[in-house]
Design goal:
The complex is a heterodimer. By secondary structure, chain A is an all-alpha fold. Chain A has helices at 3-8, 10-31, 47-57, 74-89, 91-101, 110-133, 135-140, 143-162, 167-172, 179-195, 203-221.
Chain lengths: 225, 442
């Protein structure tokens, strides 16, 4: 078996298994802990609505805080949206998923994906710059923050290296003409899948219970979230 | 009228408060063991999510008055949970087997270092939770840290002294049943009917050491309002003190003991309602945590006096006359507003008085803390930090153009009075209950 077959086959499925099992392990490890119900009479019982509202409302910064140049409110939006466009909007990525699952969806135009990839790389570089220079971020950052940054950046950089022709040309062709760079790209994605459950990337799931429980807590007390 | 001589005496007493604390020598290993024991007993599913979810974005720093006023990175709220996070990571987390390889055990020196972070520089105001994109309840984590430090014998001496007094003698700043009786006798001399120790009553009214010693007009106003409403109410010598230094210092046994005293009295007299005076932390202590302390739902409703006033006025049961078109602003005490949900009722009361009510920016659940809550007012070494936080509050109030700030929390009131004395601030500081009490309709 050559490297490409290994990266597209067994290694990919292994990393996917670690991804799924790791997430399950971490979530079950939290859910199994006890949760004490509040015995105090609630001011509002619409806690589920408040929880759902908070999950969505926290996607926007709350008005009332001092604007901050160093904390850069806009930057995280760029790399979150950019990553979503690149991962789910690029035709070869959709083809990859279709090959495995049979499911597909319309792709975004190449120019938009390239723009998103470029913006995401710059934005992640800015995020790292903040983390390395802002005194608050420097103090609270841990190894996880830096490792996660590297592991997130790698698929973007290696993916850019694979782009040598329009995605429609790749889509039309059955054979891989540049296997070495593709193998490196696939391995970087598999590294990200393996790391996901063990580092801060889990916030992609944990934001939901985190926001929801605060929304419910505040609603019980009659306080807007 | 406030007796400023008593106010100064109160300040002098606080300056020497720490000397009253009974100190005990605890070996470092035992401090760590006790602190960890508390942390582990308090980490539940909600806390686990909070400890797992932080992405270290630092947004919470922008919400913290201590960080904003000092620009000191060490005060960033999420960092205050780092020791709790490490204990969780090593002992509870699903990844504990891996985390133990990378995260060191917490040490007694770190616990000592954290005293400043969870006592001196955090009022548990909860504003940081509103800036957090993950919705982390940092204030709750800080409260657990306070309990852990208290168990390790590392609560600040001032808080420990008052907590020990409340636990051992049942008094706070020397105020017990005798002092309550004396204050009531004084009120009765002015011709007021002040029910005390009625065996049965619909409403149990609490008071607090600050009202008995210093803000006696608030006590007087409370009595006038209750009588004006014609309610079947009483004070009880067996359970009158609303302040709960168990909660403030992080001593849960004392918190339970202080809450149980009130709960038992309320049940004994068949009270349907318990009214908490103008004492910020006392409200969540009983309203939101009282049932947990009792181990069962409370068979009565708990209302903050400001909540009660707004409700009664809005329902048309309490009639007030105009206080004139004075320019006033209202300061939401964190424990009443952001933590308690008492936001609209005090404003309803003020609007009924016909005043020119000016909101601060931000306001309500986003309001800035006065800087003295959660017992910080008593911690002498925190005086500098407290003053800086007060200055932020001062700027916020000044920007409204109000001539007076109305408060419904004795602790906030004391802190603003203290800041006012330090900076010769011309804005008047008033109590909501006193304002309503002096404008009751004939």
């Amino acid at each position: 078996m050559d490297w490409l077959a290994l990266a597209r086959g067994p290694l990919f499925f292994l990393s996917l298994a670690i991804f799924v099992a790791g997430i399950a392990w971490r979530l079950v490890g939290i859910i199994r802990l006890s949760a004490k119900p509040s015995l105090a009479a609630p001011r509002s019982t619409a806690t589920a609505t408040a929880a759902a509202r908070t999950v969505f409302a926290r996607m926007l910064p709350r008005p009332g805080f001092h604007p901050s140049a160093t904390l850069a409110t806009i930057n995280p939006y760029i790399y979150h949206l950019g990553l979503a466009v690149v991962v789910f909007g690029y035709l070869p990525h959709i083809d990859f998923v279709k090959r495995l699952t049979g499911a597909g969806w319309p792709a975004l135009p190449d120019w938009l994906v390239y723009l998103a990839a470029g913006a995401t790389i710059v934005s992640l570089a800015i995020a790292l710059l903040f983390r390395l220079t802002d005194p608050v971020l420097k103090l609270i950052s841990r190894a996880d923050d830096y490792v996660t940054w590297i592991i997130t950046m790698l698929p973007l950089l290696t993916g850019m290296a694979v782009i040598l022709e329009p995605s429609s040309a790749v889509h039309a062709r059955e054979t891989i003409v540049y296997p070495a760079t593709l193998v490196i790209h696939l391995l970087s994605v598999e590294l990200l899948l393996v790391w996901f459950p063990f580092g801060k990337l889990m916030h992609a799931l944990l934001f939901i219970p985190g926001r929801a429980q605060l929304g419910a807590f505040n609603a019980r007390r009659g306080v807007p979230s | 009228m406030i007796d400023y001589k008593v106010f100064r005496q109160f300040g002098d007493a606080i300056a020497h408060l720490g000397e009253m604390a009974q100190k005990s020598e605890i070996p470092d290993e035992q401090r760590v063991r006790r602190a960890k024991q508390v942390m582990l007993s308090k980490i539940d599913r909600q806390m686990a999510v909070d400890l797992e979810a932080c992405v270290k974005c630092g947004y919470c720093s922008e919400a913290c008055h201590f960080f904003v006023q000092t620009n000191e990175p060490k005060y960033v709220p999420t960092r205050k949970l780092d020791l709790l996070r490490r204990v969780y990571g090593r002992e509870v987390s699903p990844l504990r087997f891996v985390r133990r390889l990378f995260d060191a055990e917490i040490t007694a020196d770190e616990l000592r270092k954290w005293q400043e972070l969870v006592y001196d520089s955090c009022t548990e105001c909860g504003r940081c939770s509103y800036a957090c994109p993950m919705g982390i309840n940092i204030a709750r984590g800080v409260n657990i840290m306070r309990e852990a430090l208290a168990a390790a014998g590392l609560a600040p001496d001032e808080l420990a002294a008052v907590a020990q007094e409340q636990e051992q003698r049942g008094t706070v700043f020397g105020v017990g049943p005798k002092e309550l009786q004396a204050a009531i006798a004084k009120l009765r001399e002015s011709g007021l009917d002040v029910p005390l120790d009625k065996p049965k009553a619909d409403v149990l009214v609490l008071t607090t050491v600050i009202d008995i010693l210093l803000f006696q007009d608030a006590l007087l106003a409370t009595v006038k309002i209750m009588n004006h409403l014609g309610l079947n109410w009483t004070f009880r010598t067996g359970g009158f003190e609303a302040a709960n230094f168990g909660l403030l210092s992080g001593m849960e046994d004392l918190q339970r003991q202080a809450s149980r005293k009130i709960i038992d009295e309320a049940i004994a007299i068949g009270a349907k309602t318990v009214i908490v005076p103008e004492c910020g932390h006392a409200y969540p202590a009983l309203r939101w945590e009282g049932a947990a302390m009792a181990g069962k739902p409370l068979p009565f409703e708990v209302l903050a006096i400001s909540e009660f006033l707004g409700r009664e006025i809005k329902a048309g049961r309490l009639k007030v006359k105009s206080a004139g078109a004075r320019k006033l602003t209202y300061h939401d005490a964190c424990k009443l507003g952001r933590h308690g949900g008492v936001i609209e009722e005090p404003r309803d009361a003020l609007r009924a008085l016909g005043v020119d009510l000016r909101e601060t920016d931000p306001t309500a659940e986003m309001n800035w803390c006065c800087g003295g809550g959660a017992g910080i007012f008593l911690i002498n070494r925190a005086a500098g930090l407290r003053q800086k936080a007060f200055e932020l509050k001062q700027q916020q109030i000044d920007a409204t153009g109000a001539e007076s700030v109305v408060i419904s929390c004795g602790s906030c009131r004391l802190n603003l009075m203290n800041g006012q004395a330090n900076s010769r601030w011309p804005v008047a500081i008033e109590s909501l209950v006193e304002l309503v009490g002096s404008h009751l309709a004939d």
